[in-house]
Amino acid sequence: MSNLMEQQRFTCALAAQQTVLAIPRGIPIIHAGAGCSTKAFNFASHSSGFQGGGYAGANDVSCTNAAEAEVVFGGEKKLDRLVDGALKVIDGDLYVILTGCTSDIVGDDSLSVALRYAAEGRPVVGVETAGFKGSNYQGHEFVLGAIIDQFIGDVQPKVRKGLVNVFSVVPYQDPFWRFDLETIKALLNLLGFEVNILFGSRSRGVREWKDIPNAQFNLLLSPWVGLSAVEHLKEKYGTPFLHYPVLPVGALETSRFLRAVGEYGGIPKEEVEAIIRVEEDRYYEYFSAAVDPLTEFIDLLPADFFLVADSAYALGLSGFLVREMGYEPQGVYIIDDPAESGQNRVASAFRELLPDYGDRLVFEPNGGIVQDDIKRKLNPRNKAWLFGSTWERFLAEDTDNLSVYVSVPINSNIIITRGFTGYDGGLRLVEELFNRVFQGRAIAGNVRGFQTPPREPEQKRQEA
Q1: In percent, how much of the chain has pLDDT > 70?
Q2: H and E: helices and strands count for the chain
């Protein structure tokens, strides 16, 4: 079997620099070869909806640019000078040293450099993130563990009832991470919880991280990414955790999520149901407004879909598309390459969510293989939805089908506040679906009263 992979869907562990950048005033310091950080940024930010560099990111990330001299003589002294300089000129609250393949292969003890500064009371953490150690999903978990052990450390928890720490999507690798985390926090606030969301503009930065041991419980909203963190926190501080593997999309799953969290957190059932009634009334009013005009030609819309995404989004989106939109999955492709234990958790959640479609779930990180399978299963007589990345957009164009962006790489959209999580996320997806239909001119000519402007002959347009 070939070791080559087509159509890359994730990058190496060093791209966990984006995890650091997602922490307000978090500063990555890279000990790696020249270009490693830039390549990680280009994939995890530019190719994730052009999300920008943020504070101290993009081409401004501090890096040793390790070269031949560091390979031969070691690079710890150069790293030490870089950390010292970064502390002097970059105003941050947390500095995280991340290593690349070069430094880890030659055996530089980057962790000892970080520990020396930490011993002086400086907020410096070290973590090994060489590319050969895993993908940026694993790199994200490495960073979580390092911050917990080296920055938060061994403290006595002062448990505060109602405080919840959230561990969920991987910043930037999830192109909608900002919207997703803001939505999750807002949903938990509805139940009356105080939330440490840890990443993004709704986080209080390192104050939230220092507050982690004091939580009533941790919430893992992901099938497998972050599981090692919440298990470690349970062992280290005795904090229990609720593992909810499905990222909720739409009314059915979001209401189910609120009930599960409310019950686990000791919120009276009648209070939870009152909140859900308010949210669902609003949701279905908007949902009906969007769907009603289309009922007369619903038979012209695609009924089948193929979905290419990581575990968290694949579960939530599939459930919404089947249970609320009435579409049928022909293939759901998991591309984040979880270990066997992770695959078992994803498969179990998928069977619980959609028991009739368990055989449609495929674990395959190789995008070339995924697209070959989609081509084989496409029915040329019926249009289909292709949910995925820029790769799926190209395939949809080639096969006269419709596509929606839900996973990286995304190279032709800017993503700022968009996302599909929660009640509002479900409505946003409905908008996206129907807008794509009209933009693709798939049904415009069949809608009563809808007139598409006549197109001028090609020769006349060229002369103009």
Answers
A1: 93
A2: 18, 13
Residues 208 and 316 in one domain: no
Instruction: Please check whether residues 323 and 423 belong to one and the same domain.
Output: yes
> Does residue 248 sit in the same domain as residue 314?
no
Predicted model pTM? 0.92
Q: Which residues contact 67 (CB under 8 A, 6 or more apart)?
A: 33, 34
128 & 210 share domain: no
What are 172-231's pLDDT values in tens digits? 999 999 999 999 999 999 999 999 999 999 999 999 999 999 999 999 999 999 999 999
**20 and 146 part of one domain:** yes
Domain count, the chain: 3
Given the structure tokens 């800017």, which residue do they identify? 414
Q: Which residues pair with 328 in a beta bridge?
A: 304
237 and 312 in a single domain? The answer is no
User: How many other C-beta atoms can be found within 10 angstroms of the C-beta atom of residue 153?
Assistant: 12
Q: Of 134, 152, 170, which residue constitutes the final position of a domain?
A: 152
Give the 3-state DSSP-derived string for 42-84, with helices as H, strands as E and coil as C: HHHHHCECCCCCCCCCHHHCEECCECHHHHHHCCHHHHHHHHH
Q: What angle do CA 237, 239, 245 make, to 5 degrees?
A: 135
Which residues lie across from 276 on neighbouring strands?
none
Residues 104 and 170 in one domain: no
Asked if 112 and 130 sit in the same domain, the reply is yes
Residue-number span of the structural domain to which 59 is assigned: 13-152
Asked if 179 contacts 417 with a C-beta cutoff of 8 angstroms, the reply is: yes
Q: Which of 191, 192, 188, 190 is nearest to 167 (CA)?
A: 188
CATH number at residue 259: 3.40.50.1980
Please check whether residue 374 is in contact with residue 306, taking contact to mean a CB–CB distance below 8 angstroms: yes
- Reported confidence tier of residue 53, pLDDT bands at 50, 70, 90: confident
Q: Would you say how long the chain is, in residues?
A: 464
Tokens 């249970």 found at: 323
